Amino acid sequence: GNLPQTNTRFSPLSRVAQRDRQGLFLPVPANHHRHRLPRLMLPQGAVKILKAERDRINGLVEQLKGFNPGTPEYKKLEAEVAKAQGDFNVTAQLQKKDFMDREASVYHDVFGDIEQAVARFAQEHGIAVVHRFDGDPVDSGDRNQVLRGITKPLVYYDRSIDITPDVLQLLNAGAVASAPGQPVSR
Predict the structure, then answer these.
(1) How far apart are CA 167 and CA 127, in angstroms?
(2) Whole-model pTM over 0.90
(3) What is the mean pLDDT of residues 116-126?
């Protein structure tokens, strides 16, 4: 067949490359994803309201210390504190869930961009398969890392087929493929 022009790092026989699963998320390309960050921000008004309510509850707790336990005033204030803390916790949990939903959406978008950049690079270099791998060193003192290390699917790979730096370069350049062969600049 007629293969696209290949880089000398990738032979037409193997046509396999690697990309580090963490390497594309951790060094977030300079300006590539900045436009998505506002989606992760809590509205400033919501933050102020939560802080003000937290401060109000802390003030009530301090007032509670001035009453004798068991008195009607203590019981009334104690009930008010408990209700305020419960309401605060529910509001905070709902805002946390909303944040996590927005965060998942941003991750999904970023991962889509990474997939497009990987596909573009692979197509341009005649690479048939790109494996995700974990290139992080294993800390022998951390049981979870040791288990992760011994169960990772790739036991050995030639580091010269790691395309992570190349894909990062594409992402930093701001160009990803929206469809095979159709570059889009952001």
Answers:
(1) 13
(2) no
(3) 88
